[in-house]
């Protein structure tokens, strides 16, 4: 049978600032999920949060971009928004950027990552005798937060020794999206290892290019799907950070979990943090972690599940970053964060103007640019008007 795994995540309000959703909001989404399982729309589901983003991880048989599954998630997020509004929480409904999407909710604000695959572990899919997968959810992060760690996990034997084995070693196709092309989804497919350098040319730009999916060249099966959208391209202005999710199948013909998560030991610098305007390290954290540390460090969680023959999740999940080994990396991330912030607003510590122009920084900068005058008396050319006055 074909099974679809759907990850649907939204920030619809948080307590005491942009920290975490309230218990009632999470209870509401969990009870909506239980009802959807009860009426047979979903086979199974898990609900958790990373920072202020609520993530639904669901299995079903309806395929990717299914209207009913997406509408169910949208309604659950709306119900949680109503609770956030009732209690006066910060940013109620923040990621629900359009009024009422009619079909699937891609491009409407919530982060979506889905994979449909043949799931009959014993009979029809002998190369996949057991289905295991991981879900990464980020908060306070720009859209290309996974570019470097996903590339290293799927293309570099320094991180993934499995690439030296026959099947994994046939390599992976990286489907990369140009998030700045607003005419439609603009994609390129590049193969690792032969296109290794070309892939890096694109993935170095985390704000414009992002991996959308990764496909096994051995079997043609999708190994990973990543939500890759720029919120400000949907809203036209800054409405919060993109906070992408990723769904990654592991083991066997795909990299093993440790091969996929070892690149997170870098705590690499990405765009995000406070007001979505800084360059700060990505800190791996347990699921259900609030953003309450110093600064507003970009966070990523990673939970793993197995799937039984009927598409039900294992009775419990594995929380990959909830392990003392990652305390050491969290320490490194904190040190890198302090080092970067010691340089305050200067140069590389903050995102370049092209990113900030969607936020209130545009107004602050534009107002001053307007006042520039050329020494010989000619007027300076001001930055053209564009939406963007939000200041958070
Ligand atoms: P186990 O013996 O614990 O299954 O580990 C095997 C392995 O290959 C780890 O990648
Ligand atoms: P969120 O996208 O998590 O709301 O974060 C946005 C932000 O601006 C943090 O200061
Ligand atoms: Mg928020
Ligand atoms: Mg968020
Ligand atoms: Mg966000
Ligand atoms: Mg084992």
Automatic annotation (TrEMBL):
* Sample GO molecular function, one term: metal ion binding
Q: Which HAMAP family match?
A: FBP_aldolase_phosphatase (MF_02067)
Keyword Metal-binding present in the record's keywords: the answer is: yes
Query: Pathway membership of this protein?
Result: Carbohydrate biosynthesis; gluconeogenesis
Q: What is this protein called?
A: Fructose-1,6-bisphosphate aldolase/phosphatase
Organism, as annotated: Geodia barretti (Barrett's horny sponge)
The record describes its quaternary structure and partners as:
Homooctamer; dimer of tetramers.
Entry annotated with the keyword Ubl conjugation? no
The family classification in the record reads: Belongs to the FBP aldolase/phosphatase family.
Enzyme class, broadest EC rank: hydrolase
Q: Which reaction does it catalyse?
A: beta-D-fructose 1,6-bisphosphate + H2O = beta-D-fructose 6-phosphate + phosphate
In the record, biological process GO terms are:
gluconeogenesis
In the record, what lineage is assigned to the organism producing the protein? Eukaryota, Metazoa, Porifera, Demospongiae, Heteroscleromorpha
The record ties this protein, via Pfam families, to: FBPase_3 (PF01950)
InterPro entries from the UniProt entry: FBPase_V (IPR002803), FBPase_V_sf (IPR036076)
Task: Quote the EC number.
Answer: 3.1.3.11
Task: Look up the record and name the cofactor or cofactors this protein needs.
Answer: Mg(2+)
Question: Which keywords describe this protein according to UniProt?
Answer: Carbohydrate metabolism, Gluconeogenesis, Hydrolase, Lyase, Magnesium, Metal-binding, Schiff base
């Amino acid at each position: 049978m074909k099974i679809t795994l759907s990850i649907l995540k939204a920030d619809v309000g948080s307590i005491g600032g942009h920290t975490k959703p309230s218990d009632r909001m999470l209870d509401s989404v969990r009870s909506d999920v239980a009802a959807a399982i009860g009426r047979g729309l979903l086979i199974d589901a898990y609900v958790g949060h990373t920072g202020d983003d609520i993530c639904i991880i669901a299995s079903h048989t309806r395929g990717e971009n299914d209207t009913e599954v997406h509408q169910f998630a949208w309604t659950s997020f709306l119900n949680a928004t109503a609770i956030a509004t009732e209690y006066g929480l910060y940013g109620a409904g923040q990621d629900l950027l359009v009024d009422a999407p009619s079909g699937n909710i891609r491009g409407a604000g919530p982060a979506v990552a889905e994979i449909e695959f043949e799931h009959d572990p014993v009979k029809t899919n002998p190369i996949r005798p057991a289905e295991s997968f991981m879900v990464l959810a980020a908060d306070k992060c720009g859209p290309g937060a996974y570019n470097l760690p996903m590339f290293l996990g799927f293309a570099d034997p320094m991180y993934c020794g499995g690439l030296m084995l026959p099947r994994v070693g046939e390599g992976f196709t990286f489907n990369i999206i140009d998030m700045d092309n607003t005419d439609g989804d603009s994609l390129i497919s590049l193969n690792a290892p032969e296109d290794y350098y070309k892939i890096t040319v694109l993935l170095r730009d985390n704000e414009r290019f992002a991996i959308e999916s990764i496909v096994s060249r051995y079997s043609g099966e999708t190994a990973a799907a990543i939500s890759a959208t720029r919120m400000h391209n949907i809203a036209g202005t800054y409405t919060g950070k993109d906070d992408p999710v990723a769904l990654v199948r592991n083991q066997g013909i795909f990299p093993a979990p440790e091969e996929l998560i070892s690149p997170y030991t870098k705590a690499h610098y990405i765009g995000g943090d406070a007001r979505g305007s800084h360059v700060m390290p990505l800190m791996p954290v347990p699921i259900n972690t609030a953003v309450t540390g110093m600064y507003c460090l970009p966070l990523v969680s990673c939970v793993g599940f197995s799937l039984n023959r009927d598409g039900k999740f294992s009775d419990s999940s594995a929380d990959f970053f909830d392990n003392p080994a990652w305390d050491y990396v969290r320490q490194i991330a904190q040190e890198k964060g302090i080092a970067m912030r010691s340089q305050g607003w200067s140069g590389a510590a903050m995102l370049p103007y092209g990113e900030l122009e969607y936020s209130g920084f545009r107004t602050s900068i534009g107002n001053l640019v307007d006042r520039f005058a050329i020494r010989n008396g000619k007027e300076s050319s001001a930055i053209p008007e564009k939406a963007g006055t939000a200041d958070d």
